[in-house]
Specification:
By secondary structure, the protein is mostly helical. Among the domains are: 160-184 and 296-431, no CATH class; 197-294, no CATH class. The chain has helices at 82-87, 114-118, 163-182, 185-209, 216-233, 237-255, 263-288, 297-323, 338-354, 364-392, 407-427; strands at 327-329, 333-337. A two-stranded antiparallel ribbon has the order 1-2. The radius of gyration is 57 Å and the shape is elongated. The termini are far apart.
Length: 431
């Protein structure tokens, strides 16, 4: 309000103030009254408070044809009679809205789950039998073999051994051997056959403990047969005959086996034990045979080889414990040392030079020469058995001898000493 105008408490004059604002294109509302169309009473809807007349409004005429393309689009229409329902029956099927098994007088909280309402049929899943696992064939490939031969193999633990127990067992064996040799060639040959059969049985058991399937019975029979033939005839013809028998009977053995076995693995291990224990051990029977040496000289030569072998083992045991620091072959046998090899060889040479000539027909020179040969081959026999046990994953082949393990653990070096003694007696012209 301007300062020169009336105050707010003055009486109104009825005049409109001029604001000075003009809207372009605006007309007075009074000038438009005549242009408003009149209401048609025929199209005027009744008041909502009046009673319904029952008439259905006609929305769109179906008969109308117009050149306008938009007019040809079907428009919604009311269904006024039965004909309309029949005409549109194929266009809309309301039956799919119905439930297959409606629940009468059920509330919304009592309706079945959606999975039960809409799944009309169950899907049957066929059950298939589980296929049997197929075992891959054994493939021997050097590139795929483990570097550790003990990997995946059952290891037989060694028995607790002490130097006292081993020494007592060694002395008892020496006395028993002396008594057997004193009884003559025939008793000695029978004892040797028993020792070879027991030793081969221990080796076969070691193979079985490692998963092999040797023909143990066939192998033991082959060892005894070769030993008996060697003692009876004193020649090498028994080797060929027994080997042929082993191969033929072994083939029949595995061919008739109810189990599917690897014939190369089973028969190979059988022939290996036969050649190792039976083939090398039979030289003891060749020394005892009367066809080889006259009189009792064969027993003296056999006793000389056994005595030097025992001297080598005993000397290597004690000197190795006292002076042995450097392993002879840490991979095969870490307990055998260079000090034990030197000490065992020295004790063997002393026994060959001083003890062996006490028995006829040994002489000091021959005893020393055989001692040199024994000092070389006996450690080789020990390492050979260590190699076999390393491959099989066993520490000892048996527990027959306290402090020593199995019988094969005691005669491993002797198996190499027996053929060395036999050939030495022939090359030295002692026969």
């Amino acid at each position: 309000m301007r300062s020169d105008g009336p105050f707010y408490d003055d009486e109104p004059t009825g005049e409109l103030p001029v604001t000075g604002v003009t809207i372009s294109g605006a007309d007075q509302a009074a000038d438009l009254v005549d242009e408003i169309p009149a209401i048609d009473p025929d199209t005027l809807l009744p008041h909502w408070t009046e009673q319904p007349t029952g008439a259905v409004p006609f929305v769109v005429s179906r008969e109308t044809v117009d050149d306008d393309p938009w007019a040809n689009i079907p428009a919604p229409a009311w269904r006024e009679g039965e004909a309309d329902w029949v005409a549109h029956e194929e266009q809309f099927d309301a039956s799919f809205l119905a439930q297959p098994n409606p629940v009468e007088d059920a509330g919304s909280w009592q309706m079945p789950p959606a999975r039960e309402r809409f799944v009309s049929e169950e899907i049957t899943i066929e059950e298939f039998t589980r296929p049997e696992p197929v075992v891959a064939p054994l493939v021997r490939n050097g590139a795929n073999l483990s570097r550790d031969p003990l990997a995946g193999r059952a290891v037989r633990q060694a028995q607790n051994s002490t130097v006292g127990r081993a020494t007592a067992t060694g002395i008892a064996l020496a006395l028993a051997l002396f008594v057997v040799l004193y009884l003559g060639s025939t008793i000695t040959a029978l004892v040797v056959m028993l020792v070879l059969a027991t030793a081969s049985a221990e080796v076969f058991e070691g193979f079985r403990a490692s998963g092999y399937h040797p023909a143990s019975g066939l192998g033991i029979v082959g060892v005894i047969t070769l030993a008996a033939y060697s003692y009876a005839y004193g020649n090498f013809a028994g080797y060929a005959a027994t080997l042929v028998m082993m191969i033929i009977v072994g083939f029949v053995w595995y061919a008739l086996s109810p189990q599917k076995l690897d014939v190369m693995e089973g028969l190979g291990s059988t022939i290996f034990v036969f050649a190792w224990v039976g083939g090398l051990g039979s030289f003891a029977l060749l020394l005892l045979s009367s066809h080889t040496f006259a009189g009792r000289h064969g027993i003296a030569y056999l006793w000389g080889g056994i005595m030097l072998t025992m001297a080598n083992d005993t000397g290597a045991l004690f000197t190795g414990r006292w002076f042995g620091k450097r392993p002879l072959n840490p991979t095969l046998s870490p307990n055998k040392t260079v000090g034990g090899l030197i000490g065992g060889s020295a004790i063997t040479l002393l026994a060959g030079h001083f003890l062996l000539p006490l028995m006829s027909p040994w002489a000091a020179q021959n005893g020393l020469e055989l001692a040199m040969v024994i000092s070389l081959v006996v450690p080789m026999g020990d390492l050979f058995e260590s190699m076999v046990k390393r491959s099989l994953g066993v520490k000892d082949m048996g527990k027959l001898l306290p402090g020593h393990g199995g019988l094969i653990d005691r005669v491993d070096g002797l198996l190499f000493a027996l053929p060395a003694t036999f050939y030495f007696t022939h090359f030295a012209h002692l026969s």
